[in-house]
Design brief:
alpha/beta, Nucleotidyltransferase, domain 5, five-stranded mixed sheet, 5 strands, about 45% helix, disordered N terminus
Length: about 180
């Protein structure tokens, strides 16, 4: 035995916002390892990329996950789309595999528990992940801006979706091989 601990298999998901990004790092489904929110007022893309690089260096994730950002029905601002492209490139350069999942995949993953809206999905995540429960903001009223903490729950939901889709693909592959 060499005394080295086994390397953790980390999945890092990021949800960019107009002010920064929310992120979660999971070791397994429903097993968050670390998480956070990042905000910037100036030079947002450059600042976000510097912070992401620090996260990638610190966590060394095997998988980097983002929500689809270049679909026809994506409501992402041009700046956010450019940021997402740069994030994918940076994560790949740092050796992480990259997965991009559609918003519809996230919604389908949580539909079985009756969660359809972004907030419903955040509530479902909070119910199943004790460590994040205290971060859930109150439901927004129609005249209020979205709480930045929802980005944390969007990243967590994206991670759970990734694990779910990966598991079902693995089962499909096993069935085909049999």
């Amino acid at each position: 035995m060499n005394g080295l601990s086994p390397r953790r298999s980390i999945t890092l998901a990021v949800h960019p916002t107009s002010a920064g990004f929310g992120w979660t790092a999971f070791e397994a489904p429903f097993a968050p390892f670390d998480w956070g929110l990042v905000y910037f007022e100036r030079d947002k893309n450059a600042q976000c990329l510097r912070r992401l690089e620090k996260l990638l260096n610190r966590l060394g994730p095997e998988m980097f996950v983002l929500e689809a950002f270049e679909q026809d029905d994506s409501a992402r601002a041009d700046r956010i789309t450019k940021l997402c492209r740069a994030m994918v490139s940076l994560a790949a350069h740092k050796g992480a595999d990259v997965a991009v999942h559609r918003r519809a995949d996230v919604q389908a993953c949580f539909a079985s528990v009756g969660a359809t809206t972004r907030y419903d999905i955040a509530e479902a995540v909070a119910r199943n992940i004790d460590a994040l429960r205290h971060k859930l903001p109150p439901r927004r009223r129609s005249w209020e801006k979205e709480d930045p903490r929802l980005a944390l729950f969007s990243a967590a939901a994206l991670t759970i979706t990734h694990y779910t889709l990966s598991s079902s693909r693995l089962l499909d592959d096993l069935r085909e091989a049999a």
